[in-house]
Amino acid sequence: GLVPLLAVLAVLYGVMLFRFDFRGDLDYMDGLKTFPLSAAAIAAGQLAASTLIVGCIPAAMLCAFALASGQFVLAPVLVVSAFLLIYCVLALENLFYLVFPIRFTAQSPMDFQYLGRAYVLLILRILTLGVLAAGAFGLGAGAAWLFPAWSQVVFVVVTWLALAGQGLALTLAAGAAFVRFDPSVDTPA
Predict the structure, then answer these.
(1) CB-based contacts of 154, cutoff 8 Å, min separation 6
(2) What is the pLDDT of residue 5?
């Protein structure tokens, strides 16, 4: 029970700490908009770097946990699942950031407007992530219930496909938000 909890904490802190995506490139958005790539490609590139950096520690922890417990087949399942989940979390974070851009530091020690906005966005992110995770795992559980002989394999495959579909949808949504993002108007002070 402790290793999965530590992996989840590593993801949560990693997402907040490492901003090698749109969240860290606020001052360079106008330069990103000049790249001769589609918005979805730019969004995928931004998310891929952060996913690899944030995902290494939890994926290694889960892989070591599976190998130490003798579940050799479970190790690649957990690694792929960790990277898919982290990609979806980061895509959601970047989507919210592009729609509601804020600086990550308060202007004064008691900046209640910043704190209020940050907490509202945090609650909105948690609720959205909960709905997305419940949808993916619900689809996997429903498919496993329909095919009881292959329940574990069907659960993993359908959940992976659902997470990959959500990651794709969030990437496209982040790309669309990137197109709508106007650095001259949307950049916070």
Answers:
(1) 140, 143, 144, 146, 147
(2) 75
